Amino acid sequence: MINQTIANPEAPCIGQTFTRTKRLPPQQMRYRKKLLIERYGYCCFWCSCDLTPLTITIDHYIPLSKGGSNELKNLRLACLPCNQRRGDSLPT
Ligand SMILES: [Zn+2]
């Protein structure tokens, strides 16, 4: 018996019209994360703390809800507390 259940909580909503940039599929975010780690190393962009594969997150420098993009130039590596603290706010 084959279990084909795929857990994908970030699956984009099909059929909805978005005027802003959508979140990328998880596999594309993983690829960007790999490129960011090669560029910046395991270091939080905001607080410079050391990150691990378990604590690393991708932060949008300009949030998607504020017109930011999913391009590498708008992505930064951040620890979870920094990412959550920023939320949807613009960089200051
Ligand atoms: Zn941080």
Structural summary, described in words:
- This protein is an alpha+beta fold and 92 residues long.
- The chain has a domain at 26-86: DNA Binding (I), subunit A (Orthogonal Bundle).
- 24% of the residues lie in helices and 11% in strands.
- The protein has helices at residues 26-40, 80-86, and strands at residues 56-60, 75-79.
- The protein has a two-stranded antiparallel ribbon.
- The longest helix is centred in the middle third of the chain and has 15 residues, at 26-40.
- The mean pLDDT is 86.
- Zinc ion binds at residues 44, 46-47, 49, 78-79, 81-82.
Q: What portion of the residues fall into strands of 2 or more residues?
A: 5-15%
| CA(first)-CA(last) distance | 53 Å
User: What small ligands are held by the chains?
Assistant: zinc ion
Class computed from helices, strands and strand pairing: alpha+beta
**CATH fold-type name of the domain at 26-86:** DNA Binding (I), subunit A
- Any guess at the CATH architecture of the domain at 26-86? Orthogonal Bundle
Return Rg in Å.
15 Å
Major sheet size, sense and barrel closure: 2 strands, antiparallel
Unreliable runs, pLDDT <50, ≥5 residues? none
